[in-house]
Every structure is written in structure tokens, then in C-alpha cells.
């Protein structure tokens, strides 16, 4: 006989989230999640849907009609983008310079596409010359790139140059903006990006569950003219068009509370101003960067490719990366993360995103990190790091 479980009251720890995501959630977003539920076809919710779409257009810097929150985490918006744009017989060009380029490749293969790669080392951005060479060799139908690679802390420069190469070769462009949207400059229309997807839990400081996606007319035309149906019914954009388009017809029950949360998070973006928000992330992250470098640590990404929203710091010789992470969690209720893939064990990934990108969080992090490294016997100058952070702030 199955016994009744004895489960106590929910009481998660109150962490300071400075890892690669999620980031700290603004109190206004949490309050929005506690407001009453309505039906997913209620007239009041349809008004909310319209507002979320307008706010997303502002944040993506686009006029795209087809701009929606996908019901699911960031990987759902990623799969919606790749799985709808790539069909059997298509070729997709993806990068090899990080963990999430590999995920793009996996999704394209599952969609029935042929995957080809443009090579770049982990920790470096794509070289436009290499991209052009790959187009000459493979003639892909779709080109995907990661704007802000969460696994390496590298920001892809020269996006308009990449999109120009793709469009000159009649290919559509998909941009991963999971760790850049709302925190690092990204301009979908001005940079001629056809499709961009993101997650809400990073620079937007919103719980996961409703993930941003935007497609321009050229991309949506390809989706609606497919010869075969996408393999996912749930993420089929030709069906979702009925719910998020003018018809507002039932497709699935939207995560209503998550849409409330995203609306409030995007309101915060608009109130601050998107360009001011980009500047805040750079300013606060610069103080973090100054501190770790003055302490004697090294950044993984070169200065010209540094990603303010996700700072990758090299683990010094003789230091156990996991022990430092565990110490910060146990002693300071502070979360950072280790490396992924080829950089596992070599770096820490320290987020500076959204509501977490605040002066007090960076000061707290530097104090805690200095203590953790001292505990490990690392040869670092904690006082110099704290002074540099304070000066920068």
C-alpha cells in the first residue's frame, strides 16, 4: 500500500543568483505571478498577450509581426526556431565554437536537415571569412549563430557582416540571443536577423516558462510554405499562428502566470530603456571584471569579445573549481557555475544579468570569491580585487 507522503512546507533557500541563469527575479515580477488566473482565451488575457508582443518587439528591436513568447523554456523557443525553419532536404550551417552551437546542430538533425559546420575554437567568435568560405563550400539554406555563447563568455561581433553573407547566398539567419536579449546590444531589424530566440531567465530576470521568439516575413513565409509538417505538433508555428495571430484560436493552454511574469519583466526593460539597460550591464560587469583581474585571475574571453552578461573566469592552478562553487553556496548562499563541455573544470561562469546586475551583488560576490579562494590557498590579492571593484562601481 502506498503511504501518504509527509512533505513539509516549501522553503527553498534565499540564494543570490550569479550563475549562467536563472538570475535574481525582480520583486515586481514575483508579485505579478501572484495575481489571479484567467482563462487563456479570456478577453483580458488576449489584451495581455497583445501587450507582451509589443514589449517583446521593443526588446528585440524589431517590427516583426510574428513576435511571441513560446510556452516553454529557452530550449523550446530554440527548437521552435530550428525545427520550423529546417525541413528534410535543407542544409543548416552551425558554429563549433561553443556548447549551444552543438545543440543547434542536434535540433537541425532531428528536424531532418543536413548539418554542416563553420569551425572556430571554443572561446573565440566566428570569423566572417570562415563563414563565407563555408557558404561557398556547402550552400546552406539556414545559418545559425550564437550571439552570446553562455559556455565560453564570448560575444559575437560583426553580426551585420554575418547576416549579409548569408543573405547574399539566399540563406535565412537564426540568432541565439538567450544570454544577450535585454542585457547586451542586439538589433534584430537593423542587423537583418531573420529569426531570433531567447530565454526569459537570464537578462530579463524572469522565471523560465515563456520564451521570446521573433521571425520576420521571409522566415515566416518559409515556415508556412513547408512541404512537410514540423515533427513537433506543440511547437508548429503554423498552428501557433492561430493562437498568437489575429484569430486567437485555441491551440494549447498557455502558461498564464509565466506570461504575467514576462509582461512585468518586459515592462521593467521598457521603463529603464533598452539602451540604458545595455549600458548598466556593461558598467556593472566591468566592475566585476576589474575586480577579478586585479585579484590576479584571468578572464577566458579576450577583451574584444568579452560578454558582460556572462563572465568566464579561468580557474587558477591548484584550485578545485567545484570546491569553490560548493563553498560559495554553503557559506554565502551565492550561486556561480562551472564550465561546460571543452571548458569543464577550467572556468567559472559568473552571470551579471538583469536584476542580478547590481552593485551590491558584485561587491558581495567579490568578497565571497576572495574568501573561497583564500580557503583554497590560492595566490590571489583579495584586497586589490575588492579595491578595484569598489573603484569601478
TrEMBL record:
Keywords from the UniProt entry: Aminotransferase, Pyridoxal phosphate, Transferase
Fetch the Pfam families from UniProt. Aminotran_5
**Aminotransferase class V domain spans which residues?**
38-339
Note the superkingdom of the native organism. Answer: Archaea
Chain residue ranges for the region called Disordered? 1-25
The GO annotation for biological process reads: glycine biosynthetic process, by transamination of glyoxylate
Q: Which cofactor does it need?
A: pyridoxal 5'-phosphate
Entry GO MF terms: alanine-glyoxylate transaminase activity; L-serine-pyruvate transaminase activity
Q: Record's family?
A: Belongs to the class-V pyridoxal-phosphate-dependent aminotransferase family.
Name of this protein: Alanine--glyoxylate aminotransferase
The species is: Haloarcula pellucida
